[in-house]
């Protein structure tokens, strides 16, 4: 099974770089349900549970942009690459993994 390097962010824990299987089922298992994508940067996305807020998940992290609260992510999520020239999520570069962790 192909792997991808992501930053895993669990509630009340420090973010860490891990490898997960590169499959929809694996991504759903990590976030605890159906996935939703949220753009973090040009080619970097947060992948979270689409029902996180309504599903009883614990608040995890707030996303701020230029001093304004944009979103609160509930439950476990991960950060991965999403290259413009691909229809699939991908591994973060070492530099991006370090930055987002």
Write the layout of secondary structure elements.
Elements: E1 3-9, E2 16-21, H1 24-31, E3 35-41, E4 44-49, E5 59-65, E6 68-74, E7 77-81, H2 94-100
Antiparallel strand pairs: 1-2, 1-7, 3-4, 4-7, 5-6
Please provide a written account of the structure.
It is a single chain. This protein has helices at residues 24-31, 94-100, and strands at 3-9, 16-21, 35-41, 44-49, 59-65, 68-74, 77-81. It is mainly beta and 101 residues long. The strands form two sheets. It has a five-stranded antiparallel sheet with strand order 2-1-7-4-3. Strands 5-6 form a two-stranded antiparallel ribbon. Strand 3 and strand 4 form a beta hairpin. It is globular and about 30 Å long. The two termini are 24 Å apart. The model has no long low-confidence stretch (mean pLDDT 92).
Question: Key features?
Answer:
mainly beta, five-stranded antiparallel sheet, two-stranded antiparallel sheet
Q: What's the tally of helices?
A: 2
Helix-and-strand structural type: mainly beta
What is the strand arrangement across the widest sheet? 2-1-7-4-3
Gyration radius (Cα, Å) is: 13 Å
State which percent range the strand residues make up. 35-45%
Biggest β-sheet strands, sense, barrel: 5 strands, antiparallel
Task: Catalogue the unreliable spans.
Answer: none
What is the chains' assembly state? single chain
H/E series:
EEHEEEEEH
End-to-end Cα distance: 24 Å
């Amino acid at each position: 099974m192909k792997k991808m390097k992501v930053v895993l962010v669990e509630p009340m824990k420090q973010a860490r770089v891990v490898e997960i299987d590169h499959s929809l089922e694996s991504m759903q298992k990590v976030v605890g349900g159906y996935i939703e994508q949220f753009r973090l940067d040009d080619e970097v996305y947060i992948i979270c549970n689409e029902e996180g807020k309504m599903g009883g998940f614990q608040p995890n992290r707030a996303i701020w942009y230029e001093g304004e609260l944009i979103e609160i992510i509930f439950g476990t999520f991960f950060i991965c690459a999403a290259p413009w020239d691909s229809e699939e999520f991908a591994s973060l570069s070492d530099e991006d993994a370090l930055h987002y962790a």
